[in-house]
């Protein structure tokens, strides 16, 4: 069936292809003449787009911060000697001293347990031993007395 269709309508297909090519050529020439007629407008629009892009790029470069500043608190190391004689007299162990130092920094029992990797009950036991050895009833009193005795910096 197909060979008959093409053979019967051969002239129609040929003329429609010629007509399509002619319309394409006419459209191409029309656009080309349009571009030549308005060359100055296209040139000005191109320059406007170029300067707009340049302005946006320059604004982003000027507004953007050059460096990122990251501030981090670093605790200062104070070279104050701990009164070792007083520690020996009171019988405070190294671990109890660590707990006392963290108490002085304002840490809770849970925070002290997390930082020293011990259980909460162990921290409470150390705190009770510190209170007994320093003869105080509260944390604030223990910290105050330890500072007076030179046990804390």
From TrEMBL:
Gene Ontology biological-process entries: regulation of DNA-templated transcription
Signal sequence coordinates: none
GO molecular function: DNA binding
Transmembrane segments: 12-36, 42-63
Keywords recorded for this protein, A-Z: DNA-binding, Membrane, Transcription, Transcription regulation, Transmembrane, Transmembrane helix
InterPro entries xrefs: Sig_transdc_resp-reg_C-effctor, Tscrpt_reg_LuxR_C, WH-like_DNA-bd_sf
CDD domains, per the entry: LuxR_C_like (cd06170)
Source superkingdom: Bacteria
HTH luxR-type domain residues: 83-150
One Pfam family this sequence matches: GerE
PANTHER family given in the database record: DNA-BINDING TRANSCRIPTIONAL ACTIVATOR DEVR_DOSR
Descriptive protein name: DNA-binding response regulator
Lineage: Bacteria, Pseudomonadati, Bacteroidota, Flavobacteriia, Flavobacteriales
């Amino acid at each position: 069936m197909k060979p008959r269709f093409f053979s019967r309508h051969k002239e129609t297909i040929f003329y429609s292809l010629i007509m399509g090519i002619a319309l394409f050529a006419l459209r191409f020439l029309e656009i080309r003449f349009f571009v030549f007629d308005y060359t100055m407008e296209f040139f000005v629009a191109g320059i406007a787009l170029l300067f707009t892009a340049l302005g946006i790029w320059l604004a982003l470069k000027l507004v953007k911060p050059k460096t990122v500043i990251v501030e981090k608190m670093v605790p200062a190391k104070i070279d104050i000697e701990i009164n070792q004689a007083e520690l020996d007299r009171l019988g405070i162990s190294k671990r109890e001293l660590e707990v006392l130092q963290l108490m002085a920094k304002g840490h809770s029992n849970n925070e002290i347990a997390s930082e020293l990797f011990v259980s909460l009950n162990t921290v409470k036991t150390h705190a009770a031993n510190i209170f007994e050895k320093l003869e105080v009833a509260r944390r604030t009193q223990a910290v105050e007395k330890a500072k007076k005795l030179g046990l804390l910096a």
